[in-house]
Amino acid sequence: MKRSRSISAFAALAALGLLSACAAPTDVGSTGSITITFSSYTYGTQGAAAEGTQALLDAFAAQHPDVTVVPQAVPTADVLTKAKADVVAGDAPDVVQLGYSKMAEAFHTLPVQSIEQIAGDDWASHVEGINAALVQTGERDGSIAALPFTNSVPTVFYNADLFRAAGLDPDEPPTSIDEVREAAEAIVSTGHNGVYFGIADPSKSDYVTQSVINSAGGAIVSDSGEVTVDSAEAIEGLSAVQALTTDGLQPAVGLEDALANFSSGDLGMLVASTAVAGNLQTAAEGAFELRTTGFPSFSDGPARPTFSGAGLIVLSSDSAEQQAAWEFVKFLTSAEGYSIVTEQIGYLPLRADLVDDPDYLQGYFEENQLLVPPLEQLADVAPYLAFPGEDANQAVVLLQDDAVEPIVLRGADPKDTLTQVGDRIRELTAQ
């Protein structure tokens, strides 16, 4: 079997396929005004994510009156599918905000351009200061074809008031799945819901699934490229999350209902992306004390969460549109762009120096500690692993819909379910 592709904070994503040739950089201004399209899953949503994305668009427009960006709101789960359809129709978006669970398949099936080649002489100075390992997640055939944009690691949001009411110390939050369980039991005893792992979400993202399996000592794909979603470690990790549901410590509801439950002050702990931080802060203001802590361990080893979120890819084949797309991508991944992403949406700052820069995020982090625990875990994040082949995203959907959700929310047998789904994924991704 062909070795799997790994999107990692320590190992580059290497994917098959040919890069389209890129023209030498041109001055956008010299071509007059130009319009490009931006396919985004945060644009057009509700709350902080939409407001933050609009703030990015407004700031770019003010600085680049010669470039008009037309945003396209696309649900997270549909971004890759829609991009494929648009390419076939001859109307591909110029810039796409693409989740990492879909990146490997996109590199196989979309005309993804080399951002590094489009940027030309701008490249080295621009990427200096961006988390270098995350930049490498977008490597394709020796050139960077995706830049990290909205990135996070799953974190534990918790209601400090519910902790106190349950006799728990909010200054000593749980660090392991056993401690999460104990805290949930205490909170449930006071008449509230205990914990919710956002492991089965509408976007079909598997970053929490991978974080659980990683932290239990396993992986969805082995070093040799074999699909290992049904390993003993994977079964153990998902069984532990399932037990929270079957024992009444975790509500058997969808992620949106869990978010509403936490926002209303009736859920003690929520394990999710920091992308929801902005909305949760708004809900908690004046109602309860909101805090965060790191993703828990699931075995004798340390916690090994992987990262979630999206990179930016360029599909334009026209040289002028490529340069306009580069100006847009360059702004989104600039100090100003990343600061807006952090302050207004809740993703992690991918330029470390922004945290201590008084012109950018120093004041924000002095007043807001929610992102500190996940920011600390980002330094030791585990690889995001992609299934092999051009059906990688279909394999993720299969894992999430036919294994994770039935196990965690509907009581399906973990071993039998993972074995059956593992066999189907192996067949789907066989090279």
Written account of the structure:
The chain is α/β, with parallel strands linked by helices. Strands 3-2-4-12-7 form a 5-stranded mixed sheet. A 4-stranded mixed sheet has the order 9-10-8-11, sandwiched between helices. α1 packs antiparallel against α14. Helix content is 42%, strand content 14%. The N terminus is likely disordered. It starts with a strand and ends with a helix. This is ABC transporter substrate-binding protein. Keywords: Signal. Pfam families: SBP_bac_1 (PF01547).
Inertia-based shape: globular
Strand arrangement in the largest pleated sheet: 3-2-4-12-7
Task: List low-confidence stretches.
Answer: 1-27
Averaging pLDDT over every residue, what do you get? 90
Radius of gyration: 21 Å
Strand-residue fraction?
5-15%
The count of strands amounts to 13
Largest beta-sheet characterization: 5 strands, mixed
SSE class? alpha/beta
Helix content: 40-55%
| Secondary structure tally, helices | 18
What is the end-to-end distance? 6 Å
